[in-house]
Write a structure and sequence with these properties.
By secondary structure, this protein is an all-alpha fold. The chain contains 2 helices and no strands.
Length: about 80
């Protein structure tokens, strides 16, 4: 009889813990995907966008300069030969 009571208590404890954990996760997800959470995420991404564009343009220009220098070296080598 004592075993049954122990296992019943363990089952109840696991059930309560799982229920509390699920409720917390559901609240976090609701806050994240609710209107306020989505607006906050969109605003953060919109604020970060100009910096990303500037970095991409700078990287493209640096790569362009490197490639241009390489082409000029190749042109000089071929004209000397």
């Amino acid at each position: 009889m004592l075993r049954r009571v122990r296992w019943l208590g363990a089952g109840v404890a696991v059930g309560v813990a799982t229920s509390v954990w699920t409720q917390r996760k559901a609240k976090v997800m609701a806050a994240r995907y609710g209107p306020a959470g989505l607006a906050s995420t969109a605003l953060d991404r919109a604020r970060g966008w100009p910096g990303e564009v500037r970095a991409a343009v700078a990287e493209g220009r640096a790569t362009m300069r490197q490639r241009e220098a390489q082409l000029r070296q190749d042109l000089e080598r071929s004209s000397k030969s």
